[in-house]
Amino acid sequence: MPRLGLVNWRGNDDFAPLVLVMSGEEENRLVRSLGEVANALVVGWPTDDGKEYIAAVKACVDAIQGDVPAKTARAALIRAAEEAGIRVVAAVH
Length: 93
Fold this sequence. Notes:
It is built from 3 helices and 3 strands. The chain has helices at residues 34-42, 51-64, 70-84; strands at 18-21, 28-31, 87-90. Helix 1 packs antiparallel against helix 2. The termini are far apart.
């Protein structure tokens, strides 16, 4: 697969925003970019294990490096959220 090249991880037109409905201090977390995916996974995630969680971290790094499209990381984040019992709501942009 051809490398896409390093992407702008702070904003990406290829990334459809979503809201993670979490418990604790940050009940709702808007995720609009790969940088926000990374932050949600590393800082705000309720657990640091799980097959889908690890896959989401890897997909996020791969997307930031340009190895996969941003939508791949978004899909991995949704699977990790389902694994962790976090509801996901599509956000209108």
